[in-house]
């Protein structure tokens, strides 16, 4: 299970537990409410841990991409025929500003990173 799937399942469990807690408090059932609060705390900690892991992986990937020797914004013509561009430039990594990696790196246009000039 990758981190995104794990995060989604944890959020689903947290949502169910919050509804369970609300129902238990409405009924006045303190035992179930106490148990649900403990489970909510543990799941919240796990969610924060998974989010931190994803952020760390994203930072590592961003630094790996930034360490490539050459980078430049891609023209609209190059973007339209991305397959041809990737075949012609060995080791090309294209980063779009709307992806998580692009937002993390702070780029504003579609940028290509490669070990050699292209």
UniProtKB/TrEMBL annotation:
It comes from the Bacteria. Gene3D superfamilies: Uncharacterised protein PF10928, DUF2810. Keywords: Coiled coil. Residues 7-53 form a coiled coil. InterPro entries: DUF2810. It holds the Pfam family DUF2810. NCBIfam families: PRK11020.1. This is YibL family ribosome-associated protein.
């Amino acid at each position: 299970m990758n981190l995104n799937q794990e995060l989604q399942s944890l959020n689903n469990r947290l949502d169910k537990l919050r509804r369970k807690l609300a129902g238990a408090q409405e009924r006045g059932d303190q035992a179930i409410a106490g148990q649900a609060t403990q489970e909510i705390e543990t799941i919240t900690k796990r969610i924060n841990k998974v989010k931190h892991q994803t952020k760390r992986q994203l930072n590592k990937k961003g630094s790996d991409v930034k360490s490539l020797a050459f980078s430049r914004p891609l023209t609209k013509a190059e973007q339209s025929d991305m397959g041809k561009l990737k075949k012609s430039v060995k080791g090309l990594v294209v980063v779009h500003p709307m992806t998580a990696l692009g937002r993390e790196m702070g780029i504003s246009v579609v940028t290509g990173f490669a070990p050699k000039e292209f």
